[in-house]
Amino acid sequence: MATILETRHADVMPLGHAPQDNYLTHGRGFLSWALTLDHKRIGVMYLCAVCSAFLLGGIFAMLLRTELLMPKNGPEDVFLFTRDAYNQLFTLHGAIMVFLFIIPGIPAALGNFILPIMLGAKDVAFPRLNLCSFYLWLVGALFFVLMLVTGGLDTGWTFYTPYSTSTSTAVVTAVFGAFILGFSSIFTGLNFIVTVHTMRPPGMTWFRMPLFLWAIYSTALVQVLATPVLAITLLLLIAERTLGIGIFDPALGGDPVLFQHFFWFYSHPAVYIMILPAFGVISELITTFSRKHIFGYRFIAYSSVAIAILGFLVWAHHMFVSGQSAISAMVFSAITFTISIPTAIKIFNWLATMYKGSISYATPMCYALAFIFLFTIGGLTGLPLGTLSTDIHLHDTYFVVAHFHYVMMGGTLIAFLGALFYWWPKMFGRMYHERLGQISAVIVFLGFNATFFPQFIMGAKGMPRRYANYLPEYHAWHVASTIGAYTLGIGLVIAAIALIWGLYRGKRAPANPWGSATLEWQCSSPPPHNNFDAPPVVGDPYAIHQLVYDPDQSAWVPRQEKIVESEAMLERHTDAGTTGH
Amino acid sequence: MSATADPSTATADPHGTAGHGHGHDDHHEPFLAHHFESWQQQFDAGKLGVWAFLVQEVLFFSGLFCAYAVYRMLHPEVFEYADQFLSVPHGAFNTVVLLFSSLTMAWGVRCAMLGQRNGLIGCLAVTLFCAALFLGVKAYEYSEKYHAQLIWAGADPLTVSPSGMQAGAGHLLELDPEKRAVGEQLEERLASTLHYLEFGMGVVGLLTLAAAVGIYYAKPERIGLAVVFGAISLSAIAIVIGAMASMGIHHMMHASGHEATADSEAEAAHMAEAEDEPPVHTATPGTAEIAGSTHGASVKAELSRPQRLGTFFGIYYAMTGVHALHILGGMVVLTWLLARAVKGHFTPNYFGPVDYVGLYWHLVDLVWIYLFPLLYLIG
Amino acid sequence: MTLFRLLALPAAGEASLWLPEQASTVAASVDEAWWLVYWVSAVFFAIIVVAQVYFMWAYRRRAGWTEQKTAHHNFPLELTWSIIPSLIIVVMFVKGFLGFLDMRMPPADTYDITVVARKWSWSFIYPNGVVHPELHVPVDRNVKLVMSSDDVIHSLFVPVFRVKQDIVPGRYNYLWFNATKPGTYDLECTEYCGTNHSEMRTKTVVHEPGGMERWLEDRIEDIMKMPPIELGTLLYNQRGCSQCHMVDGKGGTVGPKFEQTFGNRHQFTDGSQAVGDENYIRESVMNPQAQVRTGFPPTMPTYKGLFREAEIRGLIAFIKSQNPKFKAEAEREYAKPAGETEAGDASPDSDLPDGGANGAASADEN
After folding, report:
1. Which residues pair with C111 in a beta bridge?
2. What is the DSSP track for B102-120?
């Protein structure tokens, strides 16, 4: 498990910039952060914010799993939480994770920080709108907090009518929060689209863009095109609940299934808002840590766009049992299947990228490898859900829960962690604790599988989701799942420690600790306020072979700087970096 | 448009300063943000951003249009019946107002491109005036419908539950049909609501006008603030005019026509409806022949009020309400533009914001162009 | 071999690690689709993971190994791994769609059971009018469920039948199956519906030939044995009375409260008046439009032919007992089981097709 990170020269200053000249030190004081227009600071603020939301959602998840340790006899039998409390817990877990964490997670936090630098731009196109997005997120989150203290929410994150129009919990507050969060997401997406279109420096053609940018760009398209439909839906839901406008409430002549159509018209593409950025991250990690040019660049890029487009045409596969016509079920099932093709292409391309590479086991790569394994399971278990006859059996069971956790958590969260470890040195100028990071990856991987694999089995046997209580025959599986969840929690805590330790004790990070050829590694770590003093030299983002390891700086540098050295010397340096101790 | 309007000088002069990331150093061109390399890049970014925003807006409204289509399909009897409660003359008047405002807006963009400051100010002011006029007419229409109990399902006593009528149908049931015509009472209530509105808006208009003039003379350097107050004053007065004009249209229709206008039909419907309700046992359910409505117009209407009329009005209020919110938003940005125009911010180099707001305004106009026929015309 | 069966390919109809046993005709086709997808997935998973693990081992960064330059893209290869999965998913789609069509198209000759779902219980109404909280069906017969909901969306799921259908308020949803194995199985609500969603479970009982008829007769006997007030309470809750009439501050407000019904003088819309007595209640149930109380809409449907005589007695007893002044009298008067009064058999109104009665059997429901 030796890695390239273990260097002998711990405190070598990065070339170029003195450490005081970076975005972190460019202004001081609270207001210099609160009113900043710098995409990097906004990204860091987002990062803190979404991680807090993740912590909260994660605590709810642990409480849920703990409650499910014991089956109960009848409605009056209580283990830890009442039925209502449990219903609130799963609703809050879902709503917080979806609206506050996963959707803004990679695009708003990491995308904000990385996208302009990776593109070679000074900032996003609309810095003020960018800050506005962040504050909209904050206001939306405050509404969620307000909802928590004024009666909670027990509708499930999907707000299905007529339950959501008849329950006594704080639905309007929560829905308004989600409405605001929607606009935060729209503005972020809009900003990224315009940035990618108009802010590319000379030489940065579309097909020189790193795949992370393609993924973020595709995500942004979905954000701008799908979220407004959610916004109007939520607005109508608020009107339904407060005024009784009669659009979704069957008691007033409305159609509750129309709500489901509207909701999933957003929320299915939203699944791709969550997972596409993760694909982008994995493309970067695999190529960097395999020291190989990405395989099938155009196929991966186009598949991102294809997924974004197809994602709009499959929403009704969430409603195969709602009574829609057999024809529409057939059409939506067929289109759903087609989405698996671009996804499969990506996985095959990543594997092909690893072929004959030099695979490092640095923490980001550990997470990327875990991603391929987990996401493959997540993707393949989507097949029986897209198959009409089996979906009837599996719909709304734990099988679905396990499937989307394998995709959302095994996919997006794992990629988010990998990205965090990968860009941590760039963001804060210090290396994280490598060994702890690797340990966290292994524990997270094991804990994750222990948590969610049993849920596939329970679901196939017929265990419905959103159940506070269950039949005794599922007891053993639930216990296994809960133990897995605790393990997973421990893994995540270790990951957090590995990162935060780095902030205080980590070695100073060089400009390019990994040997990646994308632009963000050309500027210092942390980057200066304006990212680049001179427009960066744009080339093939995956021309990794042009970089060689320089043990004197414990960093990767362009090959021409080392031209004087012999091939043998090069060989030796690479080995030194590789074998470590 | 943008290509010709953005002179190449724009790229030449600020290029050097922009590279250093401090647009503010350049006193001649203070509005080029530091992260853009050129005026052209900034303009293009803004334009693409606005187009993306408009796409977002279209999708936002598309939800409502889908809901409209679905309910029209589910309840054709309601939708075919309901449009007679909406006044085509008022809707048509508003359509003309908005179309005219789109014209002045486009003209304003042209003035900005050519650097005609006074023309720009005039055009923006007229656009703002039209927007507020539109809202004035809308206020009249909403009040009228409110008093006639043409409300969304949840507030509509007939939809909620037959027994809910007793509790919810308050003011219609108090009417004593033997003493006065129902229509007359409705009209009185409507007129009184509108008087309150006109009085309130008039006061707001005068106060803000005074504030604007005061600021202008006391602190000429705060001209921007004065313009904002002036714009509010203008809007308030336009709303008053709009409400009065609507009342005028209403009277004109009754005075001139023996034909059954939409309004009188609505009133008649409500008479019929009122008579259907428990305290009045005389009317045959479903049909009513009413002579001597408000202003002598004789109305013979075949009316069978569908129980689900609230479904239509739920959608009507949702669509027009969301549209009205967009008009309000447009008025806010128009005010902002007006203040900047008065300060002389816009030049042939820098007129992006006027252009962007213009695009937005055309979209709001376009949405109305769809709403008017869908709600008012096709029955 | 057993392990293999458990994991991967069980004998027909048996439970495996994954799926429960099969107890309906469509289950076999669903399971075929499942195992098809399962094996395709397993093969792809194996290919991907084996390749991944092999690469991780063979190309790990180490002394003496440097990365090799390989092609950046290979169009034929890309095309191959795009087209082969595409062909496979077509097969899966067709298999799933055909199975789905079977499940969605009920055959012509079905045994119909009406299902009413509400927070958080089920009522199954059988053709002879018996209402019961459990689903009972005959074996080897096409059964169609006609389902509606009183409040929010529910979903009926019987895992061993592999069928599931949402029940959306404001419309009817249908579900059909043909049970192949007598036995007792689980039935669950799978659409989240609030507090006791996880308790909204009941049993599905598949009867041997002839068993269904016996069971229905037994339920009618149960009704006859119930004390009238208890039967009336049950009917009030089960047959929709509570939607419009309030009792103890709960229920709808469309119709009059039952507290005021018995023993008070009522004004009717035709101008007449009458005191609420047994005959008035009977008339109001059988022919509601004959006398409509002022202040209430004439919206109550007739229940003529829908109640057995014993049940009408039960309703009268229940409504009478709601007026505190007459509670004691009602309890005295209606002490004997509903079916054992002199009026019980000489039912003037028992024109039910099967000669059966309505109502539910077990008093523990609700």
Report:
1. C143
2. HHHHHHHHHHHHHT-HHHH
Residues in A closer than 8 angstroms to B71, CB to CB, are 247, 255
Q: Which amino acid is at C205?
A: V
Topology of domain C226-360, CATH: Cytochrome Bc1 Complex; Chain D, domain 2 (1.10.760)
Round to whole Å and give the CA distance between C239 and C314.
13
Torsion of CA A315, A321, A323, A326, to 10 degrees: 70
Rg (CA), chain B: 25
Neighbours of B142 (CB within 10 A): 16
pLDDT at B28 over 90: no
Distance CA A124, CA A135 (A): 16
Which residues of chain C lie closer than 8 angstroms to A574, CB-CB? 66
Question: Which chains does chain A touch, 3 or more C-beta pairs < 8 A?
Answer: B, C
Provide the strand spans (E) within C200-347.
201-207, 265-267, 273-275
- Distance, in Å, from the CA atom of A108 to the CA atom of C138, rounded to the nearest integer, reads 58
List the single residue in A341, A358, A466 with the smallest CB-CB distance to C197. Answer: A466
Chains touching C, CB cut-off 8 Å, 3+ pairs: A, B
3-state secondary structure A262-281: HHHHHHHHHHHHHHHHHHHH
pLDDT in tens, A271-285: 999 999 999 999 999
Q: In whole angstroms, give the CA distance from residue A469 to residue C189.
A: 12
Cβ-Cβ contacts under 8 Å, A347 against chain C:
48
Integer angstrom CA distances of residue B287 from A88, A303, B18, B304, C270: 52, 63, 75, 7, 21
Do C85 and A344 contact (CB within 8 A), yes or no? yes
Beta bridge partners of C159: none
Q: What is the pLDDT of residues A296-348, one digit of tens each?
A: 999 999 999 999 999 999 999 999 998 888 899 999 999 999 999 999 999 99
Tokens of B168: 């919810």
Decide: C178 and C152 in contact? Cβ < 8 Å. Answer: no
What is the identity of the amino acid at B298?
Answer: S
Query: Which CATH code, of 3.90.1300.10, 3.30.70.240, 2.60.40.420, 3.40.50.10860, is assigned to C111-209?
Result: 2.60.40.420
Distance from CA of A41 to the nearest CA of C (A): 35
SS3 assignment, position C178: strand
Q: Which chain C residue lies closest to B162 (C-alpha atoms)?
A: C297
**A501 interface with B at CB cutoff 8 Å:** no
Cis peptide before C120, with omega less than 30 degrees from 0? Answer: yes
Separation in Å, CA C213 to CA C131, C226, C277, C350: 14, 21, 38, 19
Taking the domain B75-163+195-263+305-377, which CATH number applies? 1.20.120.80
* CB contact residues (below 8 A), chain B span 239-298, against chain C: 278
Structural domain spans, chain C = 2-62+70-104, 111-209, 226-360
Residue B304 CB neighbours (<10 A):
14
- pLDDT tens readout for residues A518-554: 999 988 889 998 888 777 888 899 988 888 888 887 8
Nearest to B81 by CA among B248, B258, B221, B262: B262
Q: In terms of residues, how long is chain C? A: 366
Q: Which CATH topology does C2-62+70-104 take?
A: Helix Hairpins (1.10.287)
Contact A114, A281 (CB under 8 A): no
- Long-range contacts (CB closer than 8 Å, 24 or more residues apart) made by C212-215: C212/C136, C212/C137, C212/C138, C215/C136
Q: Tell me the HSE value of C270 on the side-chain side, using a 13 A CA sphere.
A: 8
- Where along chain B do its domains lie? 75-163+195-263+305-377
Place of tokens 């109007």: A232
**Structure ipTM over 0.90, yes or no:** no
